[in-house]
Write a structure and sequence with these properties.
about 280 residues; Rossmann fold; six-stranded parallel β-sheet; binds NADP nicotinamide-adenine-dinucleotide phosphate
Length: about 280
């Protein structure tokens, strides 16, 4: 293996230590950050994410409330809960776990969350602020990637950055954050022609596709930094990313593993946003 491993667990642990101290300092001023997590239905992956968020709150001394609603919850019931949480003074951040069951209107639910409490940064107002570079909250996964690059001392300025994926929660905001850091950014998607040709230009390659082993060694420029956002299951049901890790390690200069790369950073950034909301 040639590539240097970017250890998301270690970076995340160091950030959480800093955050613990911040939460303790806030407690001395009588402030306890509070996060409400809402889960509708029984999707097993979502249940794991919600449990992990609850655990992270406990670890850092953040107050948390969990609302587990049945699959048949109506739009009106969910909006009533969001409205209640918007007004609840001990709650600084509201997270509605996505995806929601099909009969619920995700866009309307996100729009109903107070932008001040939108710790996922999915509300149109916060998305717009990211676009103009005047943001209070950064979306957790792309923000986590930026922290990893920073921790690994990989400068973005002037570099060719290629993002594979253009979703609203990962690809698009990821591209915007790289642009704010003066990267030269290309966004690829399912209609991109000659994908490998484009990705081979990248000094920094970010994969957010959702397909196991999608990024192969021939798609990577020797020495490039490869960040794997993907969270997939391989043929044996094992968690894996979008990158063919073993082969790409031989070509890349630095790489994030899955698990233990971007994943741990996402929840840590959620905690960061909740603390920031409480400070305000
Ligand atoms: P998504 O909404 O499904 O978006 C996938 C993107 O990949 C789309 O833009 C799609 O293009 C593009 N794509 C699909 N096939 C392609 C191909 N053959 N060539 C080029 N591009 C292709 O997924 P997402 O929500 O962004 O998530 C992406 C991955 O990240 C998933 O594995 C997800 O589980 C993971 N994830 C991880 C974290 C974490 O904390 N680590 C957080 C969020 C997501 P089109 O737009 O043209 O369809």
């Amino acid at each position: 293996m040639n590539a240097k491993l970017i250890d998301g667990k270690a970076v995340s642990a160091a950030l959480r230590e800093q955050m613990k101290a911040e939460v303790a300092a806030l407690a001395e001023e009588g402030i306890t950050p509070g996060l409400a997590v809402v889960l509708v239905g029984e999707d097993p992956a979502s249940q794991v994410y919600v449990r992990n968020k609850e655990k992270a709150c406990e670890e850092l001394g953040i107050y948390s409330e969990k609302y587990l609603l049945p699959t048949e919850t109506t739009q009106e019931e969910l909006l009533t809960l969001v409205d209640k949480l918007n007004r609840k003074p001990d709650i600084d951040g509201i997270l509605v776990q996505l995806p929601l069951p099909g009969h619920l209107d995700e866009k309307a639910v996100i729009a109903a969350i107070s932008p001040e409490k939108d710790v996922d940064a999915f509300h149109a107002q916060n998305v717009g602020k990211i676009m103009i570079g005047d943001y209070k909250f950064l979306p957790c996964t792309p923000a986590g990637v930026m922290e990893l690059l920073h921790a690994a001392q990989i400068e973005v300025k002037g570099k060719e950055c290629v993002v594979i994926g253009r979703s609203n929660i990962v690809g698009k905001p990821m591209a915007m954050l790289l642009l704010h850091q003066h990267g030269t950014v290309t966004i690829c998607h399912s209609r991109t022609r000659n994908l490998a040709e484009v990705t081979r230009r990248a000094d920094i390659l970010i994969a957010a596709v959702g397909k196991a082993k999608f990024v192969t060694a021939d798609m990577v420029k020797p020495g490039a930094t490869v960040i794997d956002v993907g969270m997939n299951r391989d043929e044996n049901g094992k968690l894996c990313g979008d990158v063919d890790f073993g082969a790409v390690c031989e070509v890349a200069g630095a790489i994030t593993p899955v698990p233990g790369g971007v994943g741990p950073m996402t929840i840590t950034m959620l905690m960061k946003n909740t603390i920031a909301a409480a400070k305000r």
